[in-house]
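Exercise 7 asks you to align residues with tokens for two separate proteins.
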Amino acid sequence: MWKHKHYRNTFLIAAISACLPAAIIGLFVYFIGTANIEAEAKRTHQNQVSFATERIDSNLAHLETVIAQWSFNLNLSNTYGNLDVERDFYNIQQVIYRSLTWIKASDPLIDEVSLYLDKQEVLIKENKGIQKFTSKDSLQDYRALVSYQRDIYWTDTITRNPNAAPYMLVVRLPGGLATTEAALIIEINAKQLNRLIGELEPGGEGSTMLMQQDGRTISLGLNPINQPTELDLLVARVIGENEQGSYVETLKGQSYSISYATMKRIGHIWKVATAAPLAQLTQPVELLSRLVIYSGCFGLLLALFLSWFASRQSYRPIRKLALLFRSGKQSSEGTDELDFIASEWKHISRESQMMQERLDTQLPTLKESFLLQLVQGHLYFLNEKEIVDRMEQYGWDVQNTIHSVMMIQMHGLSHHEGKFSPGDEQLVTFAASNIVGEATNGRAMACSVINFQDLTVGLLIRFAVDMSEADIKATLYHLADELASMLYNLLKVHITICVGKSTRSLSSLADLFDDTRKALKYKKLDEQQQILYMDEMMPEGSHAINYPFETEKEIIQALRMGSDTELYQGLDHFLAALQQQSDKEIQVRQGLLQLFGNIQNTIMLSGFNPLHLDEGETLWEKLFHMDPKTTIQTIKDKLIAPYLQEMHQTQDIQLKQLVEKVLHTIQETYMKDISLEYCADLHGTYPKKLSVGFKQVTGTTFIDYLTQFRMDKAKRLLIETDEKINDIASQVGYQAAYFNRTFKKHEGITPGQYRERQSK
């Protein structure tokens, strides 16, 4: 076989290809690659500095936001200018001192908090009390703070605290166009700021610093600010002479990568810089390059042996993978398989990333919508296993858990101490749900907050199944008491909390929430905080009840949903179950009358008058004297059928109005990332109902209508403008690659081809 020229040439090429690359790569890395590694290290170093700068900027921005919020919440019963610091005990002790203490505790970067009163010429500190100025120079420094043009700003003019950083945050009070009467002064904790900056220093061998735009140093990280090292001085000089980026400088024979980034503070620009030695990055590369050369020489014999086998086997998996990617697509002759695979893989990765981003964006809304539908009874058609599977898909751990229910109701918005007024119901409910969520976050039990948008907040609490009933009750009572006190103190509205019962069945949650909500009606009107307990209000009896409650629940749910077939089948099943459980005819008659009353109550709650439906005919006495089958048939004919007819007529009108609103939403926000779930949540319905209704009214699905609408807009932009295709894709709500594929799928040609054809 060696005599054959083609085989010999192929074998020699394979052998040389197997041996030479390792040696070439080693030499390249050793002589040339070091410079590239340094450049890559500089880029990596710059990225690290940028990321760290964003984190530091986030901490300082959080501090600014917190202080700005506190300046609005520092409400006195008098103005700052008219405040009597010697006699006004309430404002000084109960408001100012307490607020200053809370402000200091709100962020670890705060070292000291002071309030300067300009008219009184005093300085109030949270830990030292009221201080008067001993010198006119010091007083003039503080007066300069209140005359500054900005409402909130950073300054380094009067910092005298050795434990504080040279910069402090000042908030003029009150802000805006009003005459400034006071200044809230926040001194930054130097140790905390130095620690935050010092975390950038790699292994203690480099340098980090925070500087002002004019070159003055704010922090040197772990080094004292008054004792800069030679490296610190070098870093300061480099960033003063160069623009933002990364540079390599040499000090005492050692190379350092110096990078810095800027961040905007109020009225200032600060620079975060760091220097890291390059030796610790390049030394491993030099050693690795030598090993590559030695390994290439040592592997020569092995490479000669494996070349023949590798040349035949290496292409086989590539060919299989290329055929797999080309399944269902046209084969493009002359295209390199590896390039094709890489292109397809990038495309799949981009689509996967887009889908993941959309899922992450929509997941909280989907979870909230699912839980709201579950507790309101709209998911009655799901059995226990299906509910468990759905909840686990959304990220809830519901295996081997006990579920407890709690309802929180706010009322008394208009009382004299309140912060809200009628019309703020949704705002109050939103604020309460956020407070409850923050209060329950991080506790041993898992809690889910449900915002009912009607001054009512639900709380679904999950405990481990091995937890005793007494411990569960004690935990719920303690939590209810804590939430009632917290909500009243923060919102200044009356709070009523009802602690419901517990269950291991997820399908019974709707009934538990309904019973707990009804129990809220037994609250006392004049109490500011009150807690009701279902176990104490509604004790369970021991008598046997021959009544098919579960079947009645299915009937009521089908009645609410307007499901004709399920409703009529449920009535027949109810009669059969009632006759099977009862041994006397009077019990069957009483059960049917009970069902009749509950159906009437459900119809009334849905906004329909039963007397209007049965044309004023009184059915109670007639039903009592009928046999059971005739009673069921009469309920169907005289009550159910008229109700369903009027309900469907009303639903058709409401459905058309709903779809019209959704169409308007599409026309206004088609350029954004909207979905069926988003529109359903925006217009107060659930996705399944909107999907069916949209198809019924428009004759097409939601996604098809949205896609066609976007394509029409894109075609108009392609014809009427000269904008780039990527920009047009962004304007109609798509990423460039996905837009090209979607456009070609609908029009048969690419956007560029469409524009060219229309221009001709």
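Second protein for Exercise 7:
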Amino acid sequence: MGVLRDAWSYRGLIIIILTPLLLLPLPLLIGSKVAECGFTLLVMAVFWVTEALPIAVTALIPALFFPLFGILKSTEVAATYFKDFHLLLTGVICLATAIEKWNLHKRIALRLVVFIGANPGWLMLGFMVSSAFLSMWLSNTSTAAMLMPIVEAVIQQIITADSEVTMRRERSLTGCSNTDLQLDGEGLGLDISSLQGVVVWNQRLSYFTFPKNLPHTLKYTPNTSNVPIPGPQGRYHSVKDHMMCKGLSLCIAYSSTIGGLTTLPGTSTNLIFNEQINQFYPDCHCINFGNWFILCLPISIIVLLLSWVWLHWLFLGSDFRSLLSFRRERSEREKSTARIIEQEYNALGPLSFQETVTLVIFGLMVVLWLARDPGFMPGWASLFPQYSGYATDATVALLLGLMFFIIPANKPSSPKYETLISWAEFQSCMPWEICLLVGGGFALAEGTKVSGLSVWVGNLLTPLKNLPIWAIITITCVLVTTFTEVASNPATITIFLPILAPLAETFHVNPLIILIPTTLCTSFAFLLPVSNPPNAIVYTYGHLNVIDMVKAGLGVNIIGVLVVLLAMSTWGIPLYNLDTYPDWAPIHTTPNTTGL
């Protein structure tokens, strides 16, 4: 056992050494560029899934292997590591840094929750909407990290309010007895009234204390809607409260990912897809912020609402009638919750100068993104026909992102000049590991294209051509949704896009009809705490077990895949002309694979 324990502690090193050795016969025995690129791809896939190396470090492998295998020169590989994506991400992170620094995210979230109400069901929906909205512009990790402390404060206030109600109920009874606790002393010869004062309510920890010498044959039958239950440090007043804590935690994890689907900069997988499309098909100018928003906003809304219904049924119950009773008398816990949320919001004070400037730049960035090239009408980019295709969404993001380093954070009357954000603050928010990971994905995609691996894989999957196209799309969506549960989302999309693009060409269908749903389904990593950073963040608060996330996440995964398939078979078709093979995609030809 000691040897196995030592081996397990060195599992990362073992994987790093054994993986290349076991795969080495592939390039040595076959010796073709396809095999050498396949070797690189498999090594990176294993390292990304197992995280034997940090994912950003694994992304540097193409810069090492491709020159050694003669697939790409070192200068050519290096050029693929920095793309338009990185400029767009830089501008977006400038905005995210300012929003977080000046607490604009907290104001938006609290304002929305105050507007919706304190009923647990409406409270869940309010947090989901605010989380989804913020994640359209911020990373899902940042959104979950910023909102969970607010949710936790509301949870604690609800539990405290329940404790106060229980204490008042107990004071109205004789001694410390509790009518919700039914003690059965039959056959013990005990007078139940003599046990008054034995069962004590611990107000600080919110649970009942039973003496150690209480006869083991003494039974108690809890009312699961009111009686406190054992939990971590006895933190829950009732089963109902515990279930509410689970639901509110998961709603943040899931909605912070669902909202990111709506915009291109909302999640790294969307940005990787956009850049990969530009790399695979340089003549394709059909993906931009405007038409992506039109496609994905309905998807996000439908998935969000159905996920809310699913989480409500799973954790708050199937009684939705209370949500429709707007005029009913609010319970004590709802009044207390509403009070704490309003206090949190009022503590922010009036809208500050810094928040106002950030909000204006935020709105201007969105408007310029939407109006650059909306697709259904001429955008502002058409004012410069001689420079068509020069300005992109990254141009807008960079222009307005730089404003945060120029505009003073204080009013002109202030003697000290300080900008809205500093370079140190920007660095603390900038996900440098994602920059390297995406760059490695671009290098890998270029290598699979130059070596012929992507075309070879496409021909290998030709037997699937006998299936209906929607069956193929469903299979790929389920495949990436499953794979992304054990691998990071950016790594998953980086591995699958170079394979699926030539597959679409082989079937002579619009590549977007396969690549877009695959990209969206890559974000549906809801089953495990390790599947997605927001999942891990909410799990650390201690309200959830892994099985809770698996049960809830499975339902959200199914909802997400079905809605994406619905979108691609309805409004997605006319939006991107998915029913025709585009002229920007090459005609697929069978490659010479004799070397394989």
